[in-house]
Amino acid sequence: MNQFKTLDSLEDITGKRVLVRVDLNVPVKDGEVTDATRIERVAPTIRELCEKSAKVILLAHFGRPKGKVVDTMSLEPIADAVEEVIDHRVPFASDCVGPAAAQAIADMEDGDILLLENLRFHAGEEANDPEFARQLADNGDLYVNDAFSAAHRAHASTEGLAHLLPAYAGRTMQAELEALEKGLGDPARPVVAIVGGAKVSTKLDLLMNLVSKVDALVIGGGMANTFLAAKGTDVGKSLCEHDLAATAKQIMIEAAANNCAIILPVDGVVAKEFAANADNETVDIDSVPADSMILDVGPKSVSAINAWIGKASTLVWNGPLGAFEIEPFDTATVAAAKYAASCTKEGVLASVAGGGDTVAALNHAGVAGEFTYVSTAGGAFLEWMEGKPLPGVEALTKQG
Question: Which CATH superfamily is domain 7-174+391-399 in?
Answer without folding.
Answer: Phosphoglycerate kinase, N-terminal domain (3.40.50.1260)
